[in-house]
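Why does residue order matter? Because the sequence determines the fold. Keep that principle in mind as you read this record.
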Amino acid sequence: MSVEVRNNDVNRAMRKLKKMMSNENILREVREREAFEKPSLKRKKAKAAARNRWKKEQQKNLEK
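Structure:
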């Protein structure tokens, strides 16, 4: 992965790089690999995320 800096515009190149990395989920993967996480904690986090998605969808349905 590479980003070309044009006209010494480093800030724009950094933004572009960060966007590319977030689109490919590189930062999330790095954070996940920093420390071992027990499978039970992974399941717990996944269930919590699913619950939050469900609640968000329910709120949207109530607003309609």
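The longest helix spans residues 39-63.
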